[in-house]
Amino acid sequence: MEEGGRPFLQKGPxxxxxxxxxxxxxxxxxxDNKKVIVLTTGGTIAMKLDPAHGIVPAVSGEDLVASVPGLxxxxxxxxxxxxxxxxxxxTPKRMFELGNKVEELLRHEDILGVVITHGTDTxxxxxxxxxxxxxxxxxxxxxxxxxxxxEISPDGPVNLLCAVRTAASSEARGKGVLVVxxxxxxxxxxxxxxxxxxxxxxxxxxxxxxxxxDPDRVVFRRNTLGRQSIRPPELVEDVHLIKLxxxxxxxxxxxxxxxxxxxxxxxxxxxxxxPPAALPGIRRAVEKGIPVVITTxxxxxxxxxxxxxxxxxxxxLEAGGILGGETSGPKAxxxxxxxLGVASGRDELAVFFDTP
Length: 356
Fold this sequence. Notes:
By secondary structure, the protein is an alpha/beta fold. It has 2 domains: 35-220, 3-Layer(aba) Sandwich (Rossmann fold); 239-353, Rossmann fold, CATH 3.40.50.40. The protein is built from 10 helices and 18 strands. The chain has an 8-stranded mixed sheet with strand order 6-3-7-8-9-10-13-14. Strands 15-16-17-18 form a 4-stranded parallel sheet, with helices on both faces. Strands 1-2 form a two-stranded antiparallel ribbon. Helix 3 (92-106) packs across helix 4 (123-133), helix 4 (123-133) runs parallel beside helix 9 and helix 6 runs parallel beside helix 7. The protein is elongated, with a radius of gyration of 22 Å.
């Protein structure tokens, strides 16, 4: 075993690398007559190699759980299938429906928490939307895999085991929706997928993980502050994201304004600054009653109205834009979809983005 008792790779009889999982079950007193729901949605963790088509969805929820040594010994589990799709097929509407399903499950006293298996491409978005609609002290943990079961060293089994142990831990209560990957625990609000292929892809830039999963326990080292709850009766999906680049103008903004979309999110530069040619489009959107939320292309930091030159965040704010705090473009889009279901007018919407 490696120093610190982390899972290690060893050669089995077939000379292929096999995952050894040295985890011990959580305390029985925490789980008497209670269980964790494993809710499957698909993704690489539930895929196999089809020689004719490549890696495709092929593994059921029950088969997935059965493939993880020691998982059922770690905690009583019930498997439910929500979907079996690649994560690029996940939509905000499906995320919202998933959130409703999770909240329904968590109302049952015998459920400790919920683990959701999910493809990694849109996992951070699903986690964030679920966190915004989450209204329970019980933990919800999302996990997935960067390597399928067809590859030599799939990471899905250890990720699923870590997620189940986290969902069963009393230490995870009250921390909202969590992403558990690579033995680390991240807050849905902070986590991003940072690499297209590396198993250490999920990171929380500048903040780091909330904690980690060790063989004998789930360890939390910090908490996340300023969590919000937005529970609209329905999702407003007609919200669009535009990433600005040097020389961007109002062309795409005006195109969406002419379509009478419900909202726009712009990924701007630095503190929320835009090219001067994009400013007229922002004004036209606001004049038409379309909210425009400004976020930053940078991986961390707040947008703030400190620059007053043409296109600076101060002039964007004066044009009626809404500064999006620390929220990334994709996550701000989801927040605006939810907020439009409960708020009307720029000032009411701005309140939801005022949290750093």
